[in-house]
Amino acid sequence: PVGQAGPKSGGVVYTRWGRKSCPAGAELLYEGITGGSRWDSSGGGANYVCLPIVPQYLSTNEPTWYSRMYGTKYEHVNDIFPGKDNHNAPCAVCYTSTKSVKLMIPAKTRCPSSWTTEYKGYLMTNYYGYKSNKVYECVDENPESIDGSGADVQTAAQICFTRSTCNGLPCPPYVSNRAITCVVCTK
Fold first, then answer.
1. Distance in angstroms (rounded) separating the CA atoms of residues 168 and 154
2. Per the CB 3.0–4.6 Å rule, which of 27, 84, 139, 179 could disulfide with 17?
3. By its UniProt entry, which InterPro entries does this protein fall under (predicted)?
4. Global pTM value
């Protein structure tokens, strides 16, 4: 019927890693805790997930065969994120109705000219010497922590900076052992 607003269509949902809120112009769907498989596990998921602060369960039964979900801590980050080492990483799931595409560009801090910058930061993943591979995520350049975290807990997922090498990457323009940046763009 004429004059009635229909349901929203389109838009894009993305996770802002390392922050509890969304950038200006994006709606917060939920604030969360970054979760993942333990740093030294040979099983479990390869991706980080943004777990809601308050979970909902369907069953009280404990599964016989299972994977484990852990909180994710910033690991060896004080050189770039002072005071954040061993703190658990928050996340925010964001929605913008005016955009339809999200793009994360590694090794860049600016979006293409016709795109909107949602946030910029550092390309992070699990430490290279550990068994458990994780996907690369763009963590905000001004990270926050989960309240009450900060102890060096060994049973956790970890998120570390990614350093460039000159093995297969042209140096220059790449610089050996420099923390790789990233930017999240929408259009």
1. 33
2. 139
3. Ca-dependent_lectin
4. 0.84
